[in-house]
Amino acid sequence: EIKLRLQSIVKDASSLSDYYYAVGGLVSIK
What we know:
There is one protein chain. By secondary structure, the chain is mainly alpha-helical. It is built from 1 helix and no strands. It has one helix at about 1-30. The protein is rod-shaped, with a radius of gyration of 13 Å.
């Protein structure tokens, strides 16, 4: 149960970091 929760948290964190990198790239282009 705890392991599944940790995996979901890691997955959310990686997708969030990807999102921030994409937004940061768009901002730096402007």
